[in-house]
Amino acid sequence: MDFVKLPKIELHCHLDGSLRPETVIDIAKMEKVDIPSYDIETIKNIMIAPLECNSLVEYLKTFAIPVDIMQSKESLRRVAYELLEDAAKENVKYIEVRFAPLLHIKKGLTVEEVIQSVLLGIKDAEKKHDIKGNLIIGCLRSTSLDNVYHVIESGRKFLQKGVVAIDLCGSEGEGFSKKFIEPIALAREYGYRVTIHAGETGIGKNVLEAVEMLKAERIGHGVFIKDCIEAYHIVKSKKIILEMCPTSNVQTKAVNNYKEHPIYDFYKDGIKVTVNTDNRTVSNTNLNNEYDIIFKEFNLTYEDYKEIYFNSIHASFATEEEKERLRSYFI
Length: 331
Fold this sequence. Notes:
15 helices, 8 strands
């Protein structure tokens, strides 16, 4: 199947994991950011995680250099634009980009300025390419509650102006949801939709708690519901969408290889799955590649593709008008 020609939707893509290595070098030179080398192959080797990572922790180390160069309004706007430009070349028609604004205030930007800069980059791309983007703002689970409230309040003014949801991400400890019940409830009250990274690193119960305690509508990854019957049942019964990222899951050792990935078993059992890159540069992938892998591995069909595509439309935090546009590609 030629996925290049098919319209696509991506719901789980990290901005700081999807920078062009050439851009990292260019911005480092212009803004005098200290990086280990200006050699493109050296930077690629630092930014791209091996398929055989030891863990999620090792995988996350690749984000250090991109975050260091994403500290100005200009750099944030540029990398957001380039991500959508790259996605548009793959025939991605709609993408939800996520990032943690607090990682980008090291040189004095406010959280509001960080968010606004990324939104401007998204809007720039929308004007030039056949793609629509929205923004999910995240908080690292290791941060303080004060910081979480600060991000929620700062992002509030951009709701319905490009910001659509809140996320929790980073290293995953057991029972993290309890800490964030009140701030996520406030975010929902303001109008944020909720998607939570959970069940990525061996703790299926985290998915159960993210749905029950945080009212998560979508789950980032969710691989380990396979080992927690209660989590599996709540995801299936409530039709919680899983944002699955096959290559990333192999890299972080959520699964040993593509064949062992549960995405096909979930899909055949009626769980709503979507296919995503997670981090285009870190995982050295794109959405065409992710689809190509799972379709070859599990012998899926064109009709399967359409079902996953429509799952993605339904799960997206797009407006109804935008969803209708996305449906029209298959009518």
